[in-house]
Amino acid sequence: MNRRQFATISASSALGLSVSTLLAGQNEGWIDLIGGSANGLEAFKAPTGYWKQTATVELDPASPRKLKWAETTENTGIWVNGPTGKTNNLVTRAAFGDIELKLEFNVPTGSNSGVKLQGLYEIQIFDSFGVTAAKFNASGMGGIYPRAELLPRYHHIDEGFPAKVNASRPPGQWQSMHIIFRAPRFDAKGKKTANAEFEKVLINDQLIHEKMTLLAPTGHAYVLPEVAAGPVFLQGDHGPVAFRNVKLRPLPPRQIS
Fold first, then answer.
1. Rounded to the nearest 5 degrees, what angle is found at the Cα of 174, between the Cα atoms of 202 and 81?
2. Which of 41, 42, 40 is nearest to 16 (CA)?
3. Contact, 58 vs 68, CB < 8 A?
4. Cα first-last separation, the chain
């Protein structure tokens, strides 16, 4: 067993996944976060809320702001955030530093979700299909979300980092996200020596961010302390969303010159 395999198995144990399951379904260090089983959310902290497994997801023809799906006991690996389209966020039980993350998602018209690395740095998932360049900002698909204050009402305090291109597909279609994330680095005394960085982000195979350095966390989390390792967070409380094929692999620490 090489060092990469050992690190992967150790991470899988922290996620609550058995070694046999990992070795049967993974290669090259990838860890499946949403397994194809009736209880396929073992990697996430309880309570996970009303996420339901389904065989198919599509835009609801009766209400384009909803997804049409039906709960199933089959092991499909497709999970929807319940009948109301709003439930608990999924937060991994394990913490990660530098990682590569791949996933697929599906949102209806106007819906909003996101992926947070270390629970602090967000890449937006938002139905931005057809949005013109003049109106496309960091709150849109693939944006690195702006910093924000909660009071006296929620408001942004910077512009964040919009995606380079609007890579959105029409609502109701499966879309893909691929992230290479570099965690902040700290010395032995806890002083930060390197900022967090989205080394590369792709939406639907289109490059939308490259070597984007983050001086602080995003959204209202910007006031929280940064850490060397933290959970992966899938947002489920802002609107209907489905996820499948969510997998990650820890990366060796980047070399800082």
1. 105
2. 42
3. yes
4. 30
Extract the tokens encoding 128: 């931005």
Identify the segments of the chain with pLDDT beneath 50: 1-10, 13, 18-26
**198 has which bridge partners?**
181, 212
155-195 pLDDT, tens digit each: 887 788 999 999 999 999 999 999 999 999 999 999 999 99
Contacts of 30 (CB under 8 A, 6+ apart): 8, 247, 248, 249
If we measure between CA atoms, which residue out of 245, 89, 76 comes closest to residue 174?
245
Q: Which of 126, 135, 132, 124 is nearest to 160 (CA)?
A: 124
Using alpha carbons, select from 108, 111, 92, 106 the residue that is nearest to residue 42: 92
CA distance 39 to 220: 32
Quote the CA–CA distance of 116 and 123 in Å, as a whole number: 6
The one-letter code for the residue type at 93 is R
Strands (E), the chain: 31-32, 52-53, 58-59, 67-68, 79-80, 90-91, 99-106, 112-117, 121-126, 148-149, 155-156, 175-182, 185-186, 192-194, 196-203, 206-214, 233-234, 242-250
Using CA atoms, how far apart are residues 44 and 197, in angstroms rounded to an integer? 24
Q: In what order do the strands lie in the sheet with 233-234?
A: 90-91, 233-234, 112-117, 121-126
Instruction: Please tell me the distance from the alpha carbon of residue 249 to that of residue 69, in angstroms, as a whole number.
Output: 30
Q: Is 68 helix (H, G, I), strand (E, B) or coil?
A: strand
